[in-house]
Write a structure and sequence with these properties.
By secondary structure, the chain is mostly helical. Helices cover 75% and strands 0% of the residues. The chain folds into 2 domains: 57 residues, Arc Repressor Mutant, subunit A; 136 residues, Tetracycline Repressor, domain 2 (Orthogonal Bundle), CATH 1.10.357. The protein is globular and about 60 Å long. The chain starts with 6 loop residues before the first helix and ends with a helix.
């Protein structure tokens, strides 16, 4: 009598297939865009059957949202680089500079992230649910943690911690979009250190 595969082996195989589908989906979305990508294309890129793709992801939208979640987990949750209790004990100048530099490194030096951001921005008009999913995942992870820091840092006494966090993140995102995505660094160049210094001075000045 043939023995069934151990449950652990089945789970590992399923995880490997999930990863292959995610990688194949990312490749297809970045190459062809959201509208032109099909689950057939994803199956071919992932080297699995179409049935396997659908057994892991209900449809193309759920696959794309899974990619958003993975991107946020891999990239944004590591931006701080320390636990919340350690962050609160560190000087704001250091925390904010580290946060800004990690965010800009991720946005400027990692081409896959930059291209994925371009894809979301480009498709947001026709598929607003994708942009909402991205913003929602950012809100629940990196932005919520930044708000927590601005609210609870003993060296900062901000009248509106959430608004300050949005200003801080907004300036960094604007820098990435204009300088990198819109190729504006030759037209209106600005050194990243100058931007970061200005942001830190606005937030920390007369509070340290």
């Amino acid at each position: 009598m043939r023995q069934a595969k151990p449950e652990r082996a089945d789970r590992q195989l399923s995880l490997e297939k999930t990863e292959a589908i995610l990688e194949g989906g990312m490749q297809e979305f970045l190459t062809h865009g959201y509208a032109a990508t099909s689950m057939d294309r994803v199956a071919i890129a992932a080297k699995v059957s179409k049935a396997t793709v659908y057994s892991h992801f209900q449809d193309k939208e759920s696959l794309f949202i899974a990619l958003i979640r993975r991107l946020v987990e891999q990239k944004f949750q590591s931006i701080f680089g320390a636990a919340d209790d350690q962050i609160l004990q560190t000087a704001p100048q250091i925390v904010l500079r580290n946060f800004a530099n990690r965010a800009l490194d991720m946005g400027i030096n990692e081409s896959q992230f930059l291209n994925f951001m371009r894809l979301i921005l480009g498709e947001s008009g026709r598929f607003p649910q994708l942009a909402r999913a991205f913003v929602s995942n950012i809100e629940q992870n990196a932005f919520r943690r930044l708000c927590y820091y601005f609210t609870n840092c003993p060296q900062l006494k901000l009248s509106d911690a959430e608004a300050t966090a949005r200003i801080f993140v907004g300036a960094i995102v604007h820098f990435m979009i204009v300088q990198e995505m819109l190729h504006g660094k030759d037209i209106m160049p600005m050194e990243r250190d100058r931007l970061i210094d200005g942001l830190i001075e606005l937030i920390v000045k007369e509070r340290s």
